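Quick illustration, no need to memorize.
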Amino acid sequence: MLLAGMQDVSAQKVFRLNRLVDSILTVRYRRADIDTNYVTRPQTKWTLMGRFNMSGAKISAKGMQEGIHFESEMKADYKSTVSIGVSYLGLSLNLSVNPAKMLGKYRDYELGFRSYGKRFGFDIAYQDAHNFKGWQELDGERRDFTTSEDMFKLRTLNVNGYYVFNHRRFSYPAAFSHSYIQRRSAGSFLLAASGQGQHGEVDGKTPVSFKMTNIGIGAGYGYNFVPASGWLLHLSALPTFIVYTNTSLSMGSTEVPLHYHFPEVIITGRGAIVKQIGRSMFAGFSMVYYFTNIGNKESLTVHNEKWLSRLYFGFRL
């Protein structure tokens, strides 16, 4: 009897604690500084979502060295994952599986972390890629190639953060994390900061090493278009001008100069289509695109591209 009583008391304490935590999270979730004529919170607490994700990367370079024109382009193997996510009052947990990696067909490594808030948000994307397909043109002679895991290594980190001025009427989360719902069309000017770090190595007859660090600041604009009830189309562009750069390229024992040339930029673009289905379901597509331009076309210019796309379906409980 005593043991049963102690268990009842413990169960009551856990129940009260759960209610307290739920109450605090609910107040935090509902107390949003928004114009509800334009943006609302979902009335439900739980959101479940299934996703199909795909990403890719490309690096291209061209220039002139010792009177010889050269140009090259390399594309990394595409990465596809299937993921499920659950969110409770804005707090989310996701699990992703890469079928190709489980079967040994994809050997690169990628890691992404994103947080979309009503005022502040950021994207972090890291890729450790070894398998590329591309072409190289040297003084008018072109050849195609495929790199092996031991031949080429490229590690890239992209970081982008934003601040929304019109956060009461324009919602990034409505387009990407679905913790808000955009009811009417609205846009906003945005402040942005971007960073990119990259380290590449080619193990060939002439070893090549490439290192790059860039930091940029700028501003952009985002717009959420609601053409009809239940629909949302999002587009935003965040160009940032590089204010700090530290880049080096060596071919064997030769250092290749990389001269700063205005404008050098890091551009982050985002797009999304969302369709609300009934009261509890939604589906859509979203994409994030990074582009970096550095260097001088008279000696060497390098373009980096990275994109991440997502097709998803979810419902709220």
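The longest strand covers residues 231-251.
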